[in-house]
Amino acid sequence: MKKALLLLFLLMLGFNPGCGVTELDKASIPLGLGVDVDGEQIVVSTELASPISPEQIESSSGPDFYVISGRGPTVVEAARKTTLEIPRNPLWSHTNTMIIGEKLARQDMALFMDFLSRNRYVRKNIPVFVSSQSTPEEILSVKPPIEPHPSIAIKNILNLQEKQLGIYVPIELKEMEFRFLSPGIEPLVPQVSILESNTGKRLRLEGAAVFRGRKMVGSFNEMESRGYRWMSPRRIQGGLFLVPSPLHSGKQISLELSRSQAQITPKLQEGAIIMQIKIKAEGNFYEQNEVGELFTRERFREIEELANQEIKRQILLAINKAQELNSDVFGWGQMIKQNYPQQWDKAKGNWDELFPTVGKQIKVDFSLRRSYLADRSFKFQ
C-alpha cells in the first residue's frame, strides 16, 4: 500500500507543471551565462546549444550555438526577457560557464550576487570569469577553433593552461560567493578577452580580476597570477616556468613543475603581523636553449637555487600588487582568524588599513628530479 501511494505521489509530481518539469522537446540548453550593465540596465546573455538531431549532424551547415540577450532593471527580469526570443524553455541547470562583465565588476557586484545566492537553478560548481575589454555577449559570440561552443572552450582553456603553463587558478561560483561573504579574503577571478588576428577572432585568458569589497579594483598580470598560484593552499601540479641559465647571460632554462605545496603561517612579532610563507616544490629539467653541459651535480644545485629565486620573485610580485590594491586575495585575514581569533576580533574592523602593512618572510625549496629522455645536454659533432 505504501509503495502504491509513493508511486502515485511521484506520478503527480511528474505531471505537475508547478514543479518545474519541462519536456525535452520544449527545452533549450544554455551552456554559458553572462551578466553585465549598460547604463541603468542589466544585460543577461546566454549561449544556447543549437538543437540538432543525430540525423542532422552530418548534413548541418548552420551554427552550433545562438547567443540571446535580455535587458531589464534587475537580473531576473533581464534573464526572463530572453524568453521573448527563445521558443523553448531554458534549462539553466545545464549552464557550465559564468562570465561577469568588467563594467558590472567595477561598478557593484551587489547588482548580481543577490540573484546568484537565491537562484536554485544555476549550479554552484561552474567556473567564473570576468570579461576584459569586451562584453560577455561579445565573448559568447566568438566561434572558437576545434571546440564548437565558446563557453566550453573557455572552460577547457582554463583547465588546460593550469596543467601546461600554471598561470591562472580556476575559481568556482561557490568559492567566489564564500569570498564575498567572508571577511579577510577577496576573490581573484580569471579574465577572458577577445584576440583579433588575421584568421579571425580568438578567445584568450589574459589577467585575473582583483576585487575589494563589492568592486573590481584592478588586475594581476601573468607573473603576478603565477605568484598567486604558488601560494595556493591546495597542492598544485603541472606548469612551466623559466629561470636564467647559470652558463650564459641572457639564456634561459625551462623547468616543469611536478608538484608544489605552500605552507603559510601568520606570526605576531612585537605587535606586527608577519606571514611566514614556505614553498616546497619539485620539478623536472625540460629544455635549454644554449650549447653547454648543465647535467652535473654542481649545475643542478645552481639551477635549483635560481628556481628558488624565481619562485620567490613571482610571489613577491603578487604580494606587492595585492597590497598596492589593498585586496586580501590570499585569505591572510582568514588565516589570522584561525590562528589568533582574539587578535582578529580586534583587527577585522580596520583590516583594510592593516593588510598593506603586513610583512612577509618567504622560503622556497625547489628540487630537480629528472630530465626526461636525455641525461646529457644535446651536443653537436
- Specify the number of helices: 12
The overall strand count is: 14
Please state the structural category. alpha/beta
Biggest β-sheet, characterized?
8 strands, mixed
Strand order of the largest sheet: 4-3-2-6-7-8-9-10
Q: Name the beta content range.
A: 25-35%
Query: SSE order, as H and E?
Result: HEEEEHEEHHEHHHEEEHEEEHHHHE
Oligomer: single chain
For the residues shown, what is the average pLDDT? 85
Q: Looking at the structure, what is the overall shape?
A: globular
Radius of gyration over all CA atoms, rounded: 25 Å
Give the proportion of residues in helices: 25-40%
Parts with pLDDT < 50 across at least 5 consecutive residues: 4-19
Span between termini = 88 Å
Overview of this protein structure:
The structure is a single chain. A hairpin with a 2-residue loop joins strand 8 (188-197) and strand 9 (200-212). The chain has helices at residues 2-14, 75-81, 102-107, 110-118, 136-140, 150-164, 173-181, 222-230, 297-325, 332-339, 341-347, 351-354; strands spanning 27-28, 30-38, 41-49, 65-72, 89-90, 97-100, 128-131, 188-197, 200-212, 215-220, 240-244, 252-269, 272-288, 359-368. Residues 4-19 have low confidence and may be disordered. The radius of gyration is 25 Å and the shape is globular. The chain has 12 helices and 14 strands. The strands form 3 sheets. An 8-stranded mixed beta sheet has the order 4-3-2-6-7-8-9-10. The protein starts with a helix and ends in a 13-residue tail after the last strand. 32% of the residues lie in helices and 31% in strands. The longest helix has 29 residues, at 297-325. With 381 residues, the chain is α/β, with parallel strands linked by helices.
